[in-house]
Amino acid sequence: MNWTDERVEKLKKLWSEGLSASQIAAQLGGVSRNAVIGKVHRLSLPGRAKAGGTTVAAARPKRATSAPRAPNYAARAVTRTPRTAGATALKEEVAVDLAVEPDIELDANIVVPMSRRLELTQLTERTCKWPIGDPLKEEFHFCGNDSPESSPYCSYHARLAYQPSAERRRIR
Questions:
Q1: Structure pTM?
Q2: For residue 135, how many C-alpha atoms fall within 13 Å in the half-sphere facing its CB?
Q3: Pick from 50, 73, 102: which residue ends a domain?
Q4: Domain ends where: 102, 129, 156?
Q5: How many domains does the chain fold into?
Q6: 130 and 98 in a common domain
Q7: Is there a domain that residue 115 lies in?
Q8: pLDDT-based confidence at residue 160 (cuts at 50, 70, 90)
Q9: Pfam families annotated for this entry (predicted)?
Q10: How far apart are CA 147 and CA 156, in angstroms?
Q11: Whether 44 contacts 12, CB under 8 Å
Q12: Which domain holds residue 80?
């Protein structure tokens, strides 16, 4: 199917009226919804009009460049990632949070249990599934101590995993 000047003008008119790509394809005939979307992008048409008088693109909130910062992320680095749009490569700046070890005060009364050093295939419903070490290294293992029926972790690791919200706020 060829995009004649007449069909392009009709596409522009229907798009500005707020019709969807599927509705425009049905009215034009002989063209798919995806072909309409592609032509709209190639023509750089603005977002469709909505009933409230704003365009769809204007009504959408702007997307943040990074996720909300977690309390243990302090440093920030900006990387440039190539991104393709059609046949054109675009550069996009993305903010990346770098992990920083949090300062944790250890209580002198805490006893860290000895790990049973189980592999993934050795875990059961009643063993602690707390990972220890780097999964890409040979010495990686799981805690493996007995865990209560209601938790995947032993009592020690459950205290680490499930901190009360007041404790989390205090650390920030």
A1: 0.35
A2: 3
A3: 102
A4: 102
A5: 3
A6: no
A7: no
A8: confident
A9: GcrA (PF07750)
A10: 10
A11: no
A12: 63-102
